[in-house]
Amino acid sequence: AEVVLHEENSVLQARLDSFAETLETLFACLLLDGCIAVATPGWWELAVEERKLLGLVVAANANTTSIDIPVFLPCKSPSVPFRLVGVCLLSGVWVCGLCGPTPDLVTVEQLAAGWWRRSLPTLSSALHAPATLPASLQLHQGIQGLLLVHCEVGKFVLCHNSANKKDSRPPSDVLRNFYYHTAIHLHKQDLPQKVLESYWCSEYHKVHALRSGSNLLCVLYSSAVPTHTMRLMTQQTLQAIVSDKQLCW
């Protein structure tokens, strides 16, 4: 599941946790254009396939203002349905939860309208913000983009800093290509010996990947960055993101 790194994520997380308590559910998330801004711990504990299916249900009903759909979860609850309830707060912004028989949809709509009213400016800002690195992260100017994957939870974020004018491909394409051809082995750890990092150099850029615990970070550097410094810079970048409580990674 693709997530959003936004400077106000901690505020949105607190708001969502309180809203989930009001709905009496452990499973809730806030979606921005199909990407997860924040979610409750229970939502992240759902199987990757279940989260993907729930996201598809919301996307299929994007032209409505609210949904109340019975869903069977293949792993969590294959025989007894949950109710997937969701309310469109702004165009492209949905708050969703898995509920039992109560509350009814009208009550959910009323709760959502009151609960999220003060957060609408923040949601609008997060929705229209480009997929760039948050300004709160003081990163090296040689970093052009990054792909951060949580290998256990199954979430990822793809951000760019500035495109390399010498390369016609955007940073996201380069990072995806590097991940699927090289870094995916660090994700699966299916090699005879554990490999914790890898790198690749070209005429216009360099890419370095580092696996640390459950996190896998791929960083796109400009070609001017010395190869021997990439490891330290990647380590510092990962630490900066993971330790930033505002981002809620």
In short:
The chain has 249 residues and is α+β, with helices and mostly antiparallel strands. The protein is built from seven helices and ten strands.
Helix content: 25-40%
Task: Assign the structural class, choosing from mainly alpha, mainly beta, alpha/beta, alpha+beta, or little secondary structure.
Answer: alpha+beta
Helical region count?
Answer: 7
How much of the sequence is in beta strands? 25-35%
Largest sheet: 5 strands, antiparallel
CATH class descriptor name of the largest domain: Alpha Beta
Topology-level CATH name of the largest domain: Beta-Lactamase
> How many whole angstroms does the radius of gyration measure?
19 Å
Order of helices and strands: HEEHHEEEHHEEHEEEH
Shape: elongated
The total strand number stands at 10
GO cellular component, one term: cytoskeleton
GO biological process, one term: non-motile cilium assembly
Domain FUZ/MON1/HPS1 third Longin: 143-244
Protein name: CCZ1/INTU/HSP4 first Longin domain-containing protein
